[in-house]
Amino acid sequence: MINPRQSDSNEGVGSNPAPPASITLHLSPDLAAALHRYSQQSGQSPAAAITGLLRSALQLTPSTSVPPALIEEVQRLQDRLSQLEELIPKVEALEGKWLAF
């Protein structure tokens, strides 16, 4: 059952969001228990948990911006990984050989 109704939630999009719809769900006992556990673990109300899970499942979650420092760190790690991958054949060639210093 879907009924439009006003809510304190700011989950609409744009400057004049439409009022959210009220939906009644009938859940199987195992799904209700899983939702209860998820709500407790996430610290959200069941309604907020359901909304977040639906947004994620329907790919409606707004994208988050990534800090530039994190992008730089990822690039640095990718560069380092490339360097290490280039060394693998050399290490394999030396495997089992004794090196004198």
Describe the overall structure.
This protein is mainly α. The protein has a domain at 2-57. 52% of the residues lie in helices and 6% in strands. The protein is built from three helices and two strands; from the N terminus they run ββααα. The chain has a two-stranded antiparallel sheet. Helix 1 crosses helix 2 (46-57). The longest helix is centred in the C-terminal third of the chain and has 27 residues, at 68-94. The model is unreliable at 1-13 (pLDDT under 50).
- Determine the fraction of residues in helical runs and give it as a percent range: 40-55%
Derived from helix and strand composition plus strand pairing, the structural class reads: mainly alpha
Sequence stretches where pLDDT stays below 50 over 5 or more residues: 1-13
Distance between the termini: 79 Å
Number of helices: 3
Mean pLDDT: 80
The fraction of residues assigned to DSSP E strands is: 5-15%
Which features would summarize this protein structure in a list?
single chain, mainly alpha, elongated, 101 residues, disordered N terminus, two-stranded antiparallel sheet
Task: Record the SSE blueprint.
Layout: E1 2-4, E2 21-23, H1 29-42, H2 46-57, H3 68-94
Antiparallel strand pairs: 1-2
